[in-house]
Each structure stands twice: as C-alpha cells, then as structure tokens.
Specification:
Catalytic activity: N-acetyl-alpha-D-galactosamine + ATP = N-acetyl-alpha-D-galactosamine 1-phosphate + ADP + H(+)
Helix content: 40-55%
Number of strands: 15
Largest sheet: 7 strands, mixed
Subunit structure: Monomer.
Strand order of the largest sheet: 1-15-2-3-6-4-5
Number of helices: 15
CATH architecture of the domain at 12-218 and 450-456: 2-Layer Sandwich
Protein name: N-acetylgalactosamine kinase
Enzyme class: transferase
Distance between the termini: 9 Å
Radius of gyration: 22 Å
EC number: 2.7.1.157
C-alpha cells in the first residue's frame, strides 16, 4: 500500500515505487530499529537543450525524469544526523547538526546531503536543528549527467525543511539549493535544482533566471526522447573542467564589457552584457567576433586588457582553484553561450507554434547544439561522440550530449514508430560491444516529463 501523498503521483511507475518504499522501510527498521516518519523524493533531469548557459544567466529547457533520489526519514531528539544508503557502495556517515563540515576535496555522497542540510539551516538561522536518521535509495545513474548530485541536494533540503517544521515555496527551495550546492565547489547555475522542484508531469519547462520562473513547454507528438548513458563517469566537483568553463565565461564577460565601456568590474555573466547593451543574441555573436580572438588568452593578456595585476586577477575574478590555469578560451565559450541561448528560444517557439515539421526542426537544433558543445565548448569525449553518431545512424532525428559533458549521457529525439528498432540497434552497436557497459543498469531508456520533488507520509 502506497503512503498518502501530498500530491498526485500517477506519473510514477506506482508498482515499482511501492516496492521500493516497502524495501526502504524494511531496511530502515533493520538499520535504525524504528520506522521512518516520512519520505522525500526528488527527481533527476534531462536537459533537452541549453547546455552550459544557466550559469551565464540564460534560459534552459530540461524535463524531470522518473529516476530519482528517495529518502526515508525519522526526526530524532539527539542533534545527530545519521546517513545510510541502500547501496553498499556508499559508506554510512554521521555528524552533529551544529557542526556541519563539507570537504570540497572529497565529493563523497554524504557531502551533497550536507549541502542541502546546511542551506536550510543557514536560511532560517537554525540554532538547534533537529537530528535525523536517513536512509537513501537512488535510481539515477551516478556521474551520468542526469543530475544525481543536485537531486540529492534538493532531497536533503526538503528533508531538513520538513524535519524542522518549516515551509518554503518551490522557487525559494530551488534558489537555496542552488546556492548551497556551491559548498561542494561546483559553480553551477541553477537549472538542476529548479527543474527538480518545479517540474510537472507531461511537460518540459523553460527555466529562466533573475527572477527564477518556469514556463510549460509542450513537446511534439510523434517523437520520444531517449536517454543513453555513455558509461563514462563525470563528477563536476571532482574535476576542474566545469569550473574552468565557468571562469572562461566570466572572463569573456569582463573583456566584452570593458570593450563597450560598461562597468566591467560588476559584470559577472554573459547575459548581463547583452542586457546592458540592449541588443539581440545575434548582435552579441557579432560583437564576440569583433572583440575577442579565437586564440587562447594568457593570464598576462587578460590582465593587460583589463588593466589589472595578476594578483588582482586571482583575488578578484578567478576562483581559488584556478591559480594553476594559465590560458583561457574566451571567444569559443562566448560563441557557444550566445548561440545556445538562441537555440533554446527557437526550440520553445517551435514547440509553441507546432508546425507540421516541428520534429525535424527540433532535431536540427539539437544537432547544432551538440556540434557547438563538441567544437566550441569542448565538453564532449570520444565515447559521447561515438554514441551520438550511433543514435543518428539508427533513426534519431536529433541527438546531443546532456548535462555537463565529458562523459555521462546523450539525449536523442526518436520517431515513435522507430523506437523499438532504435533501442535494439543502439544496444547492439554500443552496449553489447562492451561487457562493462552491458553490465550497467539504466543505460538506455525512453523518458517522459515527470513531476518535481515532494514529501509524503505514512497513511
């Protein structure tokens, strides 16, 4: 029997969820000697288009997926948080709730929980937050670009909120969890947390920032989105690739702003430049061509362009972990961001107007996005390149990497009548050629837009 939900959950695979909840409850009782009082669920997501532009201030277009993080919770009178995982791959962890320490050098699973916990604590200024016993179960493949880490942060934030008897809007929760995930060292932009809270069944979302808002995007009939895992793991917090791109975009913002006599010291995002200049995305692409050169910029050249010292560059603009980086590609990153931002808006427009060839047009945008990610943002990898080629070869109209890149998943738009053949052929061409890939679960699946995070209690 399913618990009584705060919201309708028919979008989920009910039989599977019921089984998971029962197993989770049994394991919880075995682990902690008592039953959980409530459960929290936060979904992963797939980004259909709009890669690496949320932290630049631009809208993105994701949808929630069925795979999720599920946590069973029992508030306790001690001020200790005990964390356990249904997977033996993740070690137990416990800490005093008044002494939260997040180790950026070790992005272990419990640190993501602590991010969400700390974010809620600090927002409300909780001096004596309640302790908790928590048991986590996850079905999002780790380090796959489907936002398992952000879903955990969101789940932990909602767990802490509920356990301490506090309330917030979904938008407030998304904004708090976006900021708190940065405790782990990832300079993300907010897409993952926003869709995890704001997603609704049956629709993708255009997520816009400053202020945060979500608009329904009805996807065309006649096609489905298929997620395929390259089986190359990528952890944003464990590598520098992601944060270097964030800094390159910030530096491009500074140089573009200074060239146009704007207050460049207070400009942080490429979107800010466009807003201040009051020009179109197409005009911004022209400005990038005029101002920035394709060759990498050295730190010395950047300092000369901005009229600052190397020490000022490191102390005022670059993050601490960028001190060993000596060159930055600004032209390529800015070109990708402005071009990708335009593709997102065009994708939404096509979905809204629903022309007869909508599926074909959307597929072309996805393909353009992938080429830009691969060539201008350089966030692909050989396995992703091969997987995209295979997906296009066997019937996908559009295919691209999704998530941070450098591993993780692709998302492909496939005509409904070709789905079964597509799945069979991709599995044979990519997964059955590797014993390691074939052994992994959740490597290839079709997905529909799912619901956002929620709390539910025992009936």
């Amino acid at each position: 029997k399913l618990p009584a939900f705060y919201a309708n959950t028919v979008f989920l695979n009910v039989s599977n969820l019921s089984f998971r909840l029962q197993k989770l409850k049994e394991m919880f009782i075995s682990k902690f000697g008592s039953a959980p009082k409530f459960y929290v669920r936060a979904p992963g997501r797939v980004n259909l288009i709009g890669e690496h532009i949320d932290y630049c201030g631009y809208a993105v277009l994701p949808m929630a997926i069925e795979q999720d993080i599920l946590i069973a919770v029992e508030p306790v009178k001690t001020q200790v948080v005990q964390l356990a995982n249904t997977s033996s791959s993740y070690l137990d962890f416990s800490t005093n709730v008044n002494n939260i320490q997040i180790d950026k050098t070790k992005p272990q699973w419990h640190n993501y929980f602590l991010c969400g916990l700390k974010g809620i604590q600090e927002h409300f200024g909780l001096n004596n937050p309640t302790g908790m016993n928590c048991l986590l179960d996850g079905t999002i493949p780790p380090s796959s670009g489907l936002s398992s880490s952000s879903a955990l942060v969101c789940c932990a934030g909602l767990v802490t909120l509920r356990a301490n008897g506090k309330t917030l809007s979904k938008v407030e929760l998304a904004e708090i969890c976006t900021k708190s995930e940065r405790y782990i060292g990832t300079e993300g932009g907010g897409m993952d947390q926003s869709i995890s809270f704001l997603a609704e069944e049956g629709t993708a979302k255009l997520i816009e920032f400053s202020p945060l808002r979500a608009t329904d995007v009805r996807l065309p009939s006649g096609a489905v989105f298929v997620i395929a895992n390259s089986c190359v793991e990528m952890n944003k917090a464990a590598t520098s690739h992601f944060n270097i791109r964030v800094m390159e975009c910030r530096l491009a913002t500074k140089l573009l702003s200074k060239s146009k006599n704007l207050d460049w010291k207070n400009m942080l995002r490429l979107h800010d430049v466009q807003t201040k200049l009051g020009v179109s995305l197409e005009e911004m692409l022209t400005i990038v061509e005029e101002v920035l050169h394709p060759e990498p910029y050295s730190t010395e050249e950047i300092c000369k362009c901005l009229g600052i010292s190397l020490e000022e560059l490191h102390s005022q603009i670059l993050s601490q972990n960028m001190r060993d980086v000596s060159s930055f590609k600004l032209y390529q990153r800015a070109k990708h961001v402005y071009g990708e931002a335009a593709r997102v808006l065009e994708f939404q427009k096509i979905c809204s107007e629903a022309p007869a060839n909508a599926v074909q047009l959307l597929g072309e945008l996805m393909n353009q996005s992938y080429i830009s990610c691969r060539e201008m943002y350089e966030c692909s990898c050989p396995e992703l390149d091969r997987l995209v080629d295979i997906c296009l070869q066997f019937g996908a109209i559009g295919s691209r990497l999704t998530g941070a890149g450098w591993g993780g998943c692709t998302v492909s738009m496939v005509p409904t009548d070709k789905l079964n053949t597509f799945l069979k052929n991709v599995k044979k061409a990519y997964y059955q050629t590797s014993v390691q890939r074939l052994a992994l679960e959740n490597t290839l699946f079709a997905s529909k837009p799912g619901r956002g995070a929620l709390v539910f209690v025992e009936a």
